[in-house]
Specification:
It contains 9 helices and 17 strands. The strands form 2 sheets. A 9-stranded mixed β-sheet has the order 6-7-8-5-1-4-3-2-9. An 8-stranded mixed β-sheet has the order 11-12-13-10-14-17-16-15. The longest helix is centred in the C-terminal third of the chain and has 14 residues. The protein starts with 7 loop residues before the first strand and ends with a helix. The structure holds fe (ii) ion. The site of fe (ii) ion (FE2) has 6 residues, from strand 10 and strand 14.
């Protein structure tokens, strides 16, 4: 198999289509510590939508809202609520990536086109992935601006909370479709199956899920795919699929260097996290052994820890960041481990299900 057949460089940004991008941008600046870097809207000659580009470390979010009821953005929001539309890649050559992707079985979403302004130009194309989500391919020619041609630099600093980059982005797909999409990422992107979890790893009394992690050869871009597994009651994946009205991005994991600092700041600024049960911390030292971080701080901030053969990781999950129980964020710090917190799944699911029960969805 050819390594990196589309010549992907990295995740360029994740675009969310939202009902009110101005307020969403405020939320991600004030609550998550992103800085606004660029803007496109009526004042920049963009008539149908307004977008705010935000950045923290190397993680970039693009928040876009429609300016009329007829656009595909409005339809997307009507169906999915505020949701991820595009997981965009910076590539060597957008035309090449697009042609290769389509030849390898992807369906075209946007034919290659120029994006041009006074700062230079870029090429942009896109293909469809699960649900109504797309993957954009972006390559620059001689661009000197801060985000993409069409955007003007409009800086508004946020209080950085220590997020370094996007670690992984998880997609939820329908029952029976996980293998289809794993094969799709393997065929189209040349990704490998990095690891997988089945219902024996990830189940509680009520629900279960199956997961396959697809990764590029450098393990810099990781895309786990979940599907629901049969449980006694409705699983969290079923709940997502119901409220997102189909498949879509379930969570964006943000990598940080010092999770105790990051989580403390996020909690201070009002980000809501899943409540990890007390019982989790009683069993923790025996399960993970000694870690660099202070166990009392970990317990106080309700951070999750997991260990595997390579090391350990610390992680915590926010509650959904919109009213529909759909997209949420993960904060993750890696200390050797390249895993996803398999040992936390059960403890975590019990916590998720307690929230789900409050919403009358269990
Ligand atoms: Fe995750």
């Amino acid at each position: 198999m050819i390594a990196n057949p589309l010549k992907l460089k990295k995740i360029h940004h994740v675009e969310m289509w939202v009902g009110n991008a101005k307020q969403a941008a405020y939320f991600y600046r004030q609550a998550f510590g992103f800085s606004q870097i660029a803007y496109a809207g009526l004042e920049t000659g963009q008539r149908d939508r307004t977008s705010y580009a935000l950045e923290q470390g190397k993680a970039r979010l693009l928040l876009t809202t429609p300016l009329d009821s007829q656009s595909e953005i409005s339809e997307h929001i009507k169906k999915h609520g505020d949701a991820v539309r595009d997981i965009a890649f910076h590539v060597e050559d957008a035309d090449f990536a697009f042609t290769q992707a389509v030849e390898r079985g992807a369906s075209a979403a946007l034919e290659p086109r120029d994006l041009i302004d006074t700062n230079g130009s870029a090429r942009h194309a896109a293909v469809h992935t699960y649900g109504d989500t797309i993957h954009s391919f972006i390559s620059y020619k001689d661009y000197k601006g801060s985000f993409l041609p069409g955007f003007e630099s409009r800086e508004m600093p946020g209080a950085d909370v220590g997020i370094v980059r996007i670690d992984h982005i998880v997609g939820n797909v329908e029952l029976g479709r996980m293998n289809y999409w794993a094969d799709w990422y393997s065929r189209v992107f040349g990704f490998e199956r990095f690891m997988s979890f089945d219902d024996k790893d990830v189940s509680t009394e009520y629900s279960a899920l199956m997961s396959i992690v697809m990764s590029d050869d450098s393990h810099a871009m990781k895309f786990p795919l979940n599907e629901p597994a049969a449980g006694r009651r409705k699983s969290q994946i079923d709940e997502y699929l119901e409220f997102n009205q189909g498949p879509g991005a379930q969570h964006i994991a943000l990598l940080c260097k010092d999770i105790t600092q990051t989580v403390a700041k996020l909690k201070e600024s009002g980000v809501e996290f899943l409540r990890v049960p007390d019982s989790y911390y009683e069993l923790l030292p025996a399960r993970v052994g000694s870690i660099k971080e202070d166990m009392e701080t970990i317990r106080r901030l309700r951070i999750l820890v997991d260990r595997d053969e390579e090391g350990y990781l610390l992680q915590l999950f926010t509650k959904p960041v919109e009213d529909r129980p759909t997209l949420f964020f993960e904060i993750i710090q890696r200390c050797g481990s390249r895993g996803f917190g398999k040992g936390n799944f059960k403890a975590l699911f019990e916590s998720i299900e307690a929230e789900q029960a409050k919403r009358g969805n269990l």
